[in-house]
């Protein structure tokens, strides 16, 4: 029996959330979606996830700030969760910026769902 991997999708665009959900559900992942970084931290406080897809530009708390907060958590399992940045503004950031914030990888918008799946699978070994 395989254990369903739980993915937290942090994204303020409903369209992207729905498309991402459909792609990931097809692979039998369990998906929870939130709209900003504060909701990510609330969800993480109450639940365990295997991976986070983190939009960089979100209201209230952006993806970089949220990732830094996660990396600083006392619970080491939660602090080490793989985080994949999703960004349309990748020109404003380098992979180095994402790494410094504590992110493991990034996928740029518009999302290539084959690439997104491959990236997710790479971090859910």
Automatic annotation (TrEMBL):
Keywords: Phosphoprotein, Two-component regulatory system
Keyword Phosphoprotein: yes
UniProt keyword annotation of Phosphoprotein present: yes
Residue span, Response regulatory domain: 6-124
Name of this protein: Response regulatory domain-containing protein
GO biological process: phosphorelay signal transduction system
Annotated organism of origin: Mongoliitalea lutea
SMART domains reported for this sequence: REC
InterPro entries, per database record: CheY-like_superfamily (IPR011006), Sig_transdc_resp-reg_receiver (IPR001789)
Residues with 4-aspartylphosphate modification: 55
